[in-house]
Specification:
Length: 358
Amino acid sequence: MIRGHGGNIYDLARNIGCSPDDIIDMSSNTNPLGPAPGLIEYLRENLEKVFAFPEVDSKKLIEAFSNYHKIREDRVLAGNGTTQFIFTLPLALGTKKALILGPTYADYGDVCQMYKIDYEYVMTKEANLFQPNIMDISGYLVGTDTVFICNPNNPTGNLIARKDLIKLCEAYPGTRFLIDESYLPFTDQYDETTVIQTDLSNVMVLHSFSKIFRIPGLRLGFLIASQKIVEQFRCFYQPWCVNSVAQIAGHYLLDHVLGDDTFLNETQSFVTKEKHLLAERLKNTKALKLFPSMTSFVLIKIKERFDAKQLCSIMANNRVLLRDCSNFKGLSNRFVRITLRSQEINAMVADKLRDIFA
């Protein structure tokens, strides 16, 4: 269950006999510009705080997060990454039947299997470039109490407009919708797409600091929901689930980085430019089909010669880790996902792919 995610540089390094630092990881969906400016230095300056317990319930961090997003504190929980909330959801809400909009992140299905929840997928279609149709989702909602939607979606990179999401959630007030916005900060449509500020009682939002700020090892995420749902989650909330370093990082990012839009704007501009350049570099590689993406990663279909496992193996021998998407339900063994890195690395990887399929 914990296998098959991106970012497993350690296994690859062991397999090919090198240091993990020598691996170019294009499989994990984190910010290609790296951590926010000043964060690492700030953490070093405050490391002595690990000698004391962190704030037991992250109250001050929740207060800072709520102030930034202009929402009430009683609508927010901070956790050990958004994964904590995904795997707490069945316990907190007593989920009996779930619907998952796919192909998507495996943890939604994994948690349903773990708790023996009746669940099914409604799959977007390759012919439609995997763009979701809200009417397709509606046709599956009778008897469903919980819906998982990743927006923008991993691994397809598609985005559902806020008006369409709100319309769907309003039409089914008895169904709870978990909207995972972990990758939304990578788009320049964040403000007009996020549903964090919605006051619908059946909507839950996941917000991750791991991806956009490139701190996945710190595990920091937030749940935003109605006061009633937050209290249901709080019944299963473990003390000190956000460690001291993650709390320190969260405060720094909220106080010193999100205070203006510079870091997010630079990230969004870089991602947009590099996706365009990647598409240009590979446009004559007929064996590869790149799908439109609103995020920092791109889904690619391999149309001939190799399958995903074979291509990932070839790239691994060049110390480049791609994401084999064959274990995403709804995708075949012909799909890989590439996450953007520096301009130089992106160009180098595109060159290698062109050479492989020349």
